[in-house]
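Module 6 notes. Inverse folding takes a fixed backbone as the condition and produces residue identities as the prediction. Think of it as a translation problem where the source language is geometry and the target language is the twenty amino acids. Below is one complete input and output pair. Work through it position by position during the lab.
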């Protein structure tokens, strides 16, 4: 598989989880059913802060990792800086780490980190930010809706993932895809557990 095919494989493997992560229950889970602008902004900032923290740590460590290629290291470094910038743009308090951020803290090895941090994180962010945009549209807050659209465009970009994956071998891309799938599943498991605890079904009602 080339880089694009690797990403497509992760998309296919996680379609159900990602669809549910992007449902109208996403913000209910993320805010503990406190569907107020400040709570939504805090949940959004928390996700970006967690991602920035994990990627920043990886960036610091990657120079000592024999698996790392220059382009991989640069992609992780750029992703860390971008997440930190998005967090700052949100300008909200940060809460306890979300499920994906907590999972990223456990990921070892450059190849696995490419999958979890550069492939899975943007795929999950795309679904989450969809609901953030919708929330502020429904609030008639055009400024924050526009900000959420801009953040979604940046957070869901897979350009860095493609660059990093292209620097890996075919077998390494397979390992990265497995790590990405595991990370999406971790995000979904946290989402489902939160809703279950609230007495809500994470599955869509047909």
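Target side of the pair, the amino acids:
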């Amino acid at each position: 598989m080339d880089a694009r095919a690797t990403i497509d494989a992760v998309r296919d493997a996680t379609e159900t989880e990602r669809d549910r992560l992007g449902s109208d229950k996403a913000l209910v889970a993320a805010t503990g059913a406190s569907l107020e602008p400040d709570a939504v902004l805090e949940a959004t900032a928390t996700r970006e802060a967690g991602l920035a923290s994990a990627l920043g740590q990886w960036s610091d460590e990657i120079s000592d990792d024999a698996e790392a290629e220059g382009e991989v290291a640069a992609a992780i470094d750029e992703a860390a800086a971008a997440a930190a910038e998005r967090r700052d743009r949100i300008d909200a308090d940060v809460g306890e780490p979300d499920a994906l951020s907590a999972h990223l803290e456990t990921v070892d090895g450059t190849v696995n980190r490419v999958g979890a941090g550069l492939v899975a994180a943007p795929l999950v962010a795309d679904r989450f930010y969809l609901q953030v945009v919708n929330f502020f549209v429904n609030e008639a807050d055009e400024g924050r809706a526009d900000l959420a659209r801009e953040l979604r465009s940046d957070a869901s970009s897979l350009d860095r993932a493609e660059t990093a994956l292209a620097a890996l071998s075919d077998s390494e891309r397979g390992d990265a895809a497995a790590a990405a799938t595991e990370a999406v599943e971790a995000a979904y498991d946290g989402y489902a557990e939160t809703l279950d605890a609230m007495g809500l079904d994470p599955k869509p009602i047909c």
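Reference fact for the lab report: The chain has a mean pLDDT of 93.
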